[in-house]
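User: I'm preparing a small set of examples for a lab meeting where we compare how different chains pack in three dimensions. I only have the primary sequence for this one, and I'd like the structure in token form so I can line it up with the others. Please keep the answer compact; I'll paste it straight into my notes.
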Amino acid sequence: MNVLIIDSQGGGIGKQLIPAVREARPEAVITAVGTNTVATSAMLKAGADHAATGENAVVVNCRGADVILGPIGIVIADALFGEITPGMALAVAQSGARRILIPVNHCDNIVVGTRDLSMGELIREAVGELPA
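Assistant: Understood. Below is the structure token output for the 132-residue chain.
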């Protein structure tokens, strides 16, 4: 299974997702794509098999992913303080992969109907949605 984890800013969500995915699905090949080098570096240090940075990396890696994990902002153009370009959001949205999105209420994007969970609880729920 090819798992693509996309994150921005400091890569905090991605660096928590990687060990959780590794534990739940040790056979998974994890590719981390950061919108900037800080996020990419954090996810690589967390144990990603492959890593890349930027819009083209998101576009290319969305093509071969079976599952895409990340904060909900990865499907919203200009989200995450402007780090998600329209091209990135479109690539994630049009990918044939299963998208598992973490409902983070930031940057004027509020997801109603979600429970107030800690990031650790959200990570566990996200990883629980990985296909067997």
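A couple of notes for your slides: The CA atoms of residues 2 and 65 lie 5 Å apart. The helical segments are 12-24, 37-45, 55-64, 79-82, 86-94, 119-128.

User: Perfect, thanks.
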